[in-house]
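Hello,

Our lab assistant flagged a job as stuck in the queue for most of the afternoon. It eventually completed. Since we weren't sure the result was trustworthy after the delay, we are filing this so someone can double-check. Below is the sequence as submitted and the structure that was eventually returned. Let us know if re-running is recommended.
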Amino acid sequence: MERLKARIRDIPDFPQPGVVFKDITPLMRDPAALRLAVHQLLHPFLGEQITAVAGMEARGFVFGALVAWELGVGFVPLRKPGKLPYEVHSVSYDLEYGSNTLEAHTDALTGEDRVLLIDDLLATGGTAAASCELVERLGAEVAGCAFVVELDFLGGRQRLRDYRIHSLVHY
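-- returned structure --
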């Protein structure tokens, strides 16, 4: 995973003073690194009978859609409020520096779905925990959660202790 880590840059004081943002855009720009990340995100879940991939707005869309493509399953976007045109379920949650809400169409998943959640970063676990709750409200089962980056010092994995977690790069 050092190859991936080498493509992630630190941006100090973004989005606010004291935060060191892990910028994955150089990784996404590098075709070999992007392919490696996608394959490593899905690898532990091969043979798990995944029926859908859900990705959190916004960078989870990039990785989630690519993982869904590789698995041959559909992709479900988990969006910020007001972005989806149909009836939605919503879950609100706290971030490291604020709060937010995620929404999904009420018919996006069913009780027969096993969903792999994908995002770029696991920090405090608020977004991922809300995503798991949202998937379960739709009647589906969370098969696991996969992240490109995990900030171990923020303890997000603890909030997800009931789920299978896979992260590629740890800080």
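-- support follow-up --
The delay was a queue issue, not a problem with the job. The result is valid. The CA atoms of residues 52 and 73 lie 5 Å apart. The beta strands are 9-12, 20-23, 52-56, 74-78, 88-95, 98-105, 114-122, 141-150, 165-170.
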